[in-house]
Structures are given as C-alpha cells and as structure tokens.
Design a protein that fits this description.
Blueprint lengths: L1 H24 L30 H5 L14 H23 L3 H24 L4 H12 L6 H17 L7 H39 L12 H20 L4
Helix pairs in contact: 1-3, 1-4, 3-4, 4-5, 4-8, 5-7, 6-7, 7-8
Bound molecules: zinc ion (ZN).
Zinc ion (ZN) binds next to loops.
C-alpha cells in the first residue's frame, strides 16, 4: 500500500505550501489575499500551475525562476518537505494506535497546526491565537485530557516569564505549553521540556559561538517546543519505556 503513503505525503506537502502562502502574505496590509496567484519575488511574473507544485517544482526548476533565473528561497521547499514527512510519520503513528479513520483526520490537523506555530514563531516571533485556538479546539476533542500537566506547564512558564521579565519566554510560549501539556500528559510534557531546553541551549550556544547572535538577541522558543512536542508525541512511549528509571 504505497499509494496511501504517497497520497499523505502529497497532502502534507500541499498543507506546507498553503502555510508558506500564509507566512509570505501575512505582513501585507489590506488583509490576507489567500486565493491570488503566486508571483516571482524578483521579476514579478505570474507563476504557471506547474511551477507551484509543492516540493517537486523547486526540484525540477533547480531552485531558480524559469525566466529571470533568480534564486527561489529554499525555505518554502524545506517547509513543504518537512510538512509532507510529518504527515507521513503521523500516519504511521496512527496505524500503530488502531484508531478509526476520523482520528487520522484530527491528528493530521493537529500536525498542520503544530507546523504552522513552528514556522510563524520562527519568522515573526509570535504565536498567533488564530493557530492556537483551533489547535486547542481539536485537542479538546481527544478522549484523554491532562489538566494537571497543563496547569503545571502553564505556571512554570508564567514563572519563567516573570523572572526573566518577559525577555526569555513570551506569553505565547506559556499558552502553547498549556495546550501541549493538556494533550500529552505529564511524562511526555517533561520529556518535551527536556528536549526543547536541550535543543534551545545547543542552538543558542552554537549561534553565540559563531557570533551570529549576541547575548541580548531573542531566540524564539516556540519552534523548540513544537519540535520537541512532535518527538515526544510520536516516539515518547518508546523513549520513556527505555529510560533507566
Ligand atoms: Zn523571476
């Protein structure tokens, strides 16, 4: 059954492509123009449908505009590829759980919203409520909710927010950890916090070492939370079962 895997990858890549449109058109004034055609950023030419196929177009155009040869920014290619792969992993996870098809739809939506939060925070250092609220809504449909973990996560982040006077963590991170804790429960939330702080520390250390950042510059923490949440969700049971304690 390779057909369904391909279909899910294509669905995920298209979801990533749509997210790329949201990200690139977000700052423009006069509202979001979601349905307008795409243009080359450099020469302004309207793109043909086959120049807009997620993942594939970038590959067969070799990363350049067909007419003006300007480089196409590779971020959107990576976004689409990552999104396609994430949908696939979610599908494999769903297969192992023996859940009905309806749940696959809900978990794919959760995957998309996690990626949306990841890339929006990375680009704009904000976690918009237009993503957080629908994400919370779909979490509330799940059979098991973990309110103690949600409030422990929330209070921990509010504490960090007050101690660092809002420079370390944003309120968006506090809201995000509340929803993630509600969904994943205490053990997987602790695992995700451990992974997120570890990865965040390593990346911050690397950027300082390469002089790409200064002590004062702000590194969005949301992408680390989301990345760690995906790992903890997909493989948390496996990892936690193999810990020595
Ligand atoms: Zn061009």
């Amino acid at each position: 059954m390779l057909a369904i895997e391909l279909l899910l990858f294509a669905l995920g890549a298209s979801g990533g492509s749509f997210l790329g449109v949201l990200i690139s058109r977000y700052p423009r004034k006069g509202g979001l123009d979601l349905w307008g055609r795409s243009y080359c950023d450099n020469c302004g030419r309207q793109l043909a449908w086959w120049e807009n196929i997620p993942v594939l177009s970038f590959l067969f155009l070799r990363g350049r505009c067909r007419t003006c040869k300007a480089k196409i920014r590779p971020e959107y290619f990576w976004l689409e590829l990552l999104s396609g792969l994430s949908f696939l992993v979610t599908f494999f996870w769903w297969q192992q759980q023996n859940l009905a098809w309806l749940w696959l739809g809900i978990y794919l939506l959760l995957t998309w919203f996690l990626l949306a939060i990841f890339f929006f925070d990375r680009h704009y250092q904000i976690i918009p409520d237009v993503f957080l609220l629908p994400f919370l809504f779909f979490i509330l449909l799940l059979p098991h909710l973990y309110f103690p973990a949600a409030f422990i996560g929330l209070f921990f982040f509010l504490f960090l927010y007050i101690v660092t006077k809002g420079k370390g963590m944003g309120l968006g991170d506090a809201k995000l950890i509340f929803v993630l804790g509600l969904w994943l429960g205490l053990a997987k939330m602790l695992l995700l916090l451990y992974l997120a702080f570890l990865a965040g520390g390593l990346v911050a250390g690397f950027l300082l070492w390469r002089h790409r950042a200064r002590w004062k510059s702000r590194l969005a923490f949301g992408p680390f939370l989301v990345g760690a949440a995906l790992v903890s969700w997909w493989w948390g049971d496996y990892i936690l079962a193999r810990l020595p304690w």
